[in-house]
Amino acid sequence: MYKVFDVLEIRKDFPILNQTIHGKPLVYFDNAATTQKPQSVIQAISEYYQEFNANIHRGIHTLAEKATAEYEGTREMVRKFINASSTDEIIFTRGTTESINLVAATFGRQQVKAGDEVIITTMEHHSNIVPWQMLCEEKGATLKVIPINDAGEIILEEYEKLLSERTKLVAAVYVSNSLGTINPVKEIIDRAHAFGARVLIDGAQASAHLDINVQELNCDFYAFSSHKLYGPTGIGVLYGKRELLDSMPPYQGGGEMIKEVSFEKTTYNELPYKFEAGTPNIADTVAFKKALEYVNEISKPVAAEYEHELLTYATESLQEINGLRIVGTAKEKISIVSFVVEGVHHQDIGIILDTQGIAVRTGHHCTQPLMQRFGIPGTTRASFAMYNTKEEIDKLVKGLHRVVKMFR
Amino acid sequence: MTINQIQDEIIEEFALFDDWTDKYEYIIDIGKKLPPLSSEYKTEENKIKGCQSQVWLHAHMDGDKLLFEGDSDAVIVKGLIGLLIRVLSGQKPEDIAKATLYFIDKIGMSQHLAQTRSNGLASMVKQMKLYGIAFQAKQEVK
Ligand SMILES: Cc1ncc(COP(=O)(O)O)c(C=O)c1O
After folding, report:
1. Which among A212, A208, A163, A183 has a CA at the least distance from the CA of A386?
2. Where is the Fe-S metabolism associated domain (chain B) (predicted)?
């Protein structure tokens, strides 16, 4: 549909963007927290409830069949989106966080023993730290952390030194939500496999911007959320290799995940249903498909190229602000700029930008250990999506000039 | 002046501003002028848990009046603390305990009391009132 990338046309698909905040046109630069949703996604949710709401899988009536077909249609769409070999490997969860917790509670509990090691990176989101800490504590295992350099890049030589026969799992973020760094996950995965360790990739930030091919990456698990990908909140994905998912114990018990239940013994359902207990989030899952279709229609590489242009433009323009320092200057980045301004607290920056209609995120971005690594309490983060424009970046720069004048 | 008289005075001052930036400039000014809390009071106990900025509150009695001093590493929050101090510091504990702080809403700053701001201002208000209750109880024991 979009032969050439036309940001003004794209903006029309996102009704929320067309509003004023404190009398100023909204500039939405908080896309790493969650992206806005195109009309097709919003419409799909209400269509589901208006036209074919029914509980899935067990019904034999027409509505149940339609709802099931749509729900499973999203699973097939997700499979294609990340190039998994089978829909059996696509498990629906509430989001990245639940996907990671699922792996920790099943694979982790089963495989990680006292004396074993789990490796993560310095730039993990809390949701890829805490589940492993909890697991290690429970099992008497050790959590090891790959250090990063001052640009915010993983030091691969240090990673090599951490790997050993004791390593059971490496859990690494594909793209840092605080810095924008794109990690060399292929190398991380290959090196872990050489030691027989399994690898989970946190794809929360990567999936909207990079082409994802789980077979080529050869990761064992891949987690991401719909809401950072122009889809609804409350739905996410865990990809896992079939042989692993098969050998893992179930996560939660209940309906849907069983084959047969008696009081003596229960047998579990086939993949992927074994990991999907209870009535799932049908409406949002159905609408998630529209988000993936939207991204495919625009074409991810085309959007990514445009977003990279925005990143370059913002990185250059922000240099004019006196005392501003960008945190996260990796060679490979997606469209996230985190920065600190000398003498001005990030919270003050956020409040004043909000009065200009500009939405940014301030704070530690759920990566406190990373902030400690840089010796700062937090940053101001502007993260761009395909519907943002250079004119909006100009407004951010203008707003920051104002901030500096007000606080210094 | 009573707590409500001071609140009304602040509301009048803010009525002069029609732009958000002007309001914040005023608050920033109050923040910058608020005397820093001396380091002996910047203790863990005096710290009010907030997500994004650090906030400290110190309370002590002077005769029958409860006095507050406060500080923050973020200027706007510090300005809001300055306003709270102006309203509540130097009042009787029982008056502080039962005060309704309507000025925050009237000057358009109630969003800073919202959960999402996580700047500890709501906890700050709560803590000031708790001090009021505690010192009132102490006086009654005496
Ligand atoms: C890198 C990363 N991992 C994990 C998460 C958690 O995702 P969710 O809150 O959707 O479960 C986020 C979201 O902020 C993230 O940016």
Report:
1. A208
2. 11-129
